[in-house]
Write the structure tokens for this entry.
Amino acid sequence: MRPETVKAVGGHLDLRNWNPDSSLLSLEGEWKFYPYLLPKEINEETRPFFITLPSHWNQFDLPNKQKLNGFGLGTHRLKLLLPIREEASSLALLTGEQDTSHAIFVDGKYLGGAGQVGKNENDYIPGVKSSLVIIPLQPGQKELILDLVVANFAHRKGGAWNDIILSNYQLANQRLVWNKMNQSIVAAILGFVAIIFLLLYFFEDKSMHAVGIFAFAGIIFLRNITTGERIILDYISLPYSIVLRLEYLSWFWTAPILTLYFHMLFPEDFKRRITRVFSLLSGGLTLILLLPSVYFTETASVYPFIFLLNGGYIFYALFYSFVNKRAQSKNLVFGTFLLLLASINDTLHAEGIIHSFYVGPLAVIIFVSLQVNTFGVAIKASIQRNKDLAKNLISLNESYSRFFPKEFMKYLGKTDIRELKLGEQIQKKMTILFADIRSFTEFSESLTPKENFDFLNAYLQRVGPIIRHNRGFIDKFIGDAIMALFPYSPDDAIRAAVQMQSEIRLYNEKRVRSGYQPIKVGVGIHTGNLILGILGEHERLEGTVISDAVNLASRIEGVTKMFGAEIVISADSFIEADQNLGYEYRLLDRVAIKGKSESVYVVEVLNGYEDEKRDALIAKKFEYTVALEAFRRQEFEEAKEGFLDILNTVPQDNVSRIFLKECERHLQFKNIEF
């Protein structure tokens, strides 16, 4: 997806009618510009200048007829009027490399960048990579102040000359990945071409034709990985000064190597003396690369003329070869014309004279394809291998997602498991569900290890899809227990618990028919704030959830054993649940929870039982409430009669049976508090 261009006016940009989920915006036009000032040094009284981005600030007019040179620091500021959203949300800002370090601030807060900006060389570290940052937005936020700070003390030109793109995180990340993938594919093809022709030289006929293709593909490969997204830095950590020298080296030698190659093909038309002159000029410029970058980058003001002169000579001599009907010259004329156009574009783009993108490597691929027809099969095979690699990576990510929930990565703002870092975390309100098989330890002792695993997998395969179907996800398996998270509503967790108990009853019918013992599962549910994050150390990471709410949900699951209930939820979950959910509840009591200083109200969900028991409990719900109220008033004789009446009708009501025993105990030992 190509970004839409929007033009700021007077340092302001109105985006109130923009949908960040549908498009990328390239923030161009008039930005406020504060030379030599950091964002924290700017106040309402600071007079701004205005600069049109993207552009370098060289020769920017200052008061008293002064002009900026390439060195220094400047803050580019833009006020954005945002589309209003009622819920908390976020945007993403994708910034291409800027000359030669940059930092992104939103409302005065640093979010990221490349290198380190500073007002002098001692406080400055160059860094020329794209940066992608997330901009968190508060509910109802109407505007924000975006500051792009650029500092340069290493290049002849400074400023924000590259793309500044605003979107949601997914689209911005897709564009960054797409750019890098395109460059990687082009680099793979160029590298493959270079290696193939080098092997042809050594193992075939020692042809200088093969050497020429190898050298040309190799120098364009070097230029491809050191410009644009500078993908070399994704594999090798190199100082900016080295990367810049490699970029200039590839630039200085692209045209001379191509001239040497054509001289080998058509010695009658490409004069040796002229070919040698261009090679000597590039050799001299290469020696200048030994100087500090502030000096050798000045060659960029001279070399474009030499480069274009060399390109013009190549096209002239090659056209002469075509007129003389030299072999292969027809395709080479067309291919070289493309190379010349691409070279002009790349040179003007690198100098900030025009705003486009690098197309030279692509033109080289077309050139090589036109020249070597037999190489088409090899290119196709290489592309297929890259596609297979991409499919394997997707398959690998899908495999990883079975060990690490995709939803977990979603809430951490990640799309790739490789992006996860130690210490990343986010706080969110969720509903926690704990499900545990009753008396599993005793049950498992009668099974072999294989039977234990087969049983657990059969059980989990039945309840896992129910959790996902109700918009939840399993955080972890703890032996025979399940911990699941429901990020949207307690309704989802309660509905999942009821469906799980229904599925377990069906499973038990199958187990009984097969001669196996049926199982019982207790489910505890609580709603509260929790922290999702990455714990561990650098060699072993794990996604986990930390919260008192998690511990409380686990303790509530333990309450199901105390009361012989199947589904118990906290009062917090009960209050937030939709009363139109269609389920029946009854208050159990205020019970002491291990690890909590205060007792907690817990509620039973009656729909977890089979239909007959459920209907019987619902029919006695009023009598149960009256008996429970008497119990809480410590009128134990009245409560006892009430619970006895319920048990006469519903003898399988474990909760009433427990309260009956407590009534009898209180009546027998009135001096002991319950």
